[in-house]
Amino acid sequence: MTDSYLPRAEYDFSQGPLRSDNSDADPVRQFSLWYEKEAQSGEHDGNRMALATADTEGCPSVRMVLLKQFGATGFIFFTDYGSRKATELEQNPRAALLFHWPRLQRQVRIEGRVEKVSREMSEEYFSQRPRNSQVGAAVSQQSSPLCDRSIFEAQVSKMLEGDDPIPCPESWGGFCLVPDRFEFWQGQPGRIHNRVLYLSDSGAWQRSELQP
Ligand SMILES: Cc1cc2nc3c(=O)[nH]c(=O)nc-3n(C[C@H](O)[C@H](O)[C@H](O)COP(=O)(O)O)c2cc1C
Prior knowledge:
Elements: H1 27-40, E1 48-54, E2 60-66, E3 69-71, E4 74-80, H2 84-91, E5 94-101, E6 106-116, H3 119-128, H4 131-139, H5 149-161, E7 172-186, E8 194-201, E9 204-209
Antiparallel strand pairs: 1-2, 1-5, 3-4, 4-7, 5-6, 6-7, 7-8, 8-9
Helix pairs in contact: 4-5
The structure holds flavin mononucleotide.
């Protein structure tokens, strides 16, 4: 470790301000506007998000996952139902999502309740995945200890050899986060950033601003 601070990055805070009176009244539509803009910025990695969960003691854990669908019903990702994240969600079905889109100096935070998607939806999405991803999901008991990687890799190779369809494992599927809180952060010069907060109030969204 060095004694000096890490170097400062120079940011280009050239996006216009986001305020409670120029953002969309519906946070899902606001998310969609920003998501489209991020997708137009050239890279296709805007669906990467950090997913935070907590166990029954309130101890948090966080990891990246991919957003696969969003809309009025919620924000959907897929994973192994035996994984650490899924175990924590089983015990405490609240989670937080975080998107960081540095090219646009934007951050979006979303919080809410999480529920499993239907088995039909998980099977349908699984059937569209590339075969090697299906094999990975079928062989891996995500987040369990790996005793012998060579045995694991041999199982993967064996399953990859055949061309029998790979059924969606019972222990694999989607979760939908149903949001009750959004915060849109727009970077501005001099650290005078914009923060627009949406809180769900009996089904209606209330908009306000937070200090940067
Ligand atoms: C960019 C990125 C995207 C990822 N997407 C997923 C995903 O969609 N689903 C998933 O289960 N794991 C995904 N992972 C792996 C997770 O970050 C994590 O390692 C894994 O899900 C196990 O987490 P857990 O032990 O907390 O359950 C992704 C990792 C990265 C870096």
